[in-house]
Amino acid sequence: MFKVGDRVVYPMHGAGTIEGIEEREVLGKTHRYYVLRLPISDMKVMIPVDNTQEIGLRDVIDPSDVDKVLSVLRQECSAMSPNWNRRYRNNLEKIKSGDIFEIADVVRNLSAREKEKGLSTGERKMLDSAKEILLSELILANGWDRDKALHVLEEALA
After folding, report:
1. Could you give the CA distance from residue 130 to residue 19 in angstroms, rounded to a whole number?
2. In order of start, what are the domains of the chain with their CATH numbers?
3. Cα 70–103–48 angle (5° rounding)?
4. Which residues form the CarD-like/TRCF RNAP-interacting domain (predicted)?
């Protein structure tokens, strides 16, 4: 169970801080929700306390793991399907997993493909989304501001 002030990652949305735990009545039943503030999009999300396991809510990585994430970004691209649809689905599954190393893999591969061949509109949006998710966790893990995190990310991809 998480508590107010915990920094957590909500897959497909990014990292944020739990600002509160509220009870709300939905369809005649009272449920408890985490109120999560996502700093990147300045959005508030309510997550059912009972569903955190299924949703994949997890703690933000330790600052010591940031170098491992940056190492993934610096590695050579992994093999990607030439089929756009298959590649898109594979990358989407990695993002949905909420695993920061899988997300870093997606960012690295799509960034390289963008430089090499360009991206379709769908893959461009996916790259932007994956970068935001990655940035949000790097910001909370290291206490960086957005500009510093973006600089470090771009440097690792160069």
Report:
1. 24
2. 7-59 (2.40.10.170), 63-157 (1.20.58.1290)
3. 125
4. 1-111
Flag whether pLDDT at 84 surpasses 90: no
Q: What is the mean pLDDT of the chain?
A: 91
Other CB atoms within 10 Å distance of the CB of residue 148: 13
Amino acid at 1: M
**What's the Cα-to-Cα distance from 128 to each of 7, 29, 89, 106, rounded to whole Å?**
22, 38, 16, 11
Q: Where are the alpha helices (DSSP H) in 30-117?
A: 52-55, 66-74, 84-97, 100-116
Q: Is the pLDDT of residue 133 over 80?
A: yes
Give the residue among 94, 96, 93, 91 at the shortest CA–CA distance from 81. 91
Q: What is the pTM of this model?
A: 0.87
Instruction: Decide: 45 and 13 in contact? Cβ < 8 Å.
Output: yes
Select from 85, 132, 56 the least CA-distant residue to 47.
Answer: 56
Q: Is 123 helix (H, G, I), strand (E, B) or coil?
A: helix
Residue with tokens 């990292």: 15
Q: Which run of H or E residues covers position 18?
A: strand 14-26
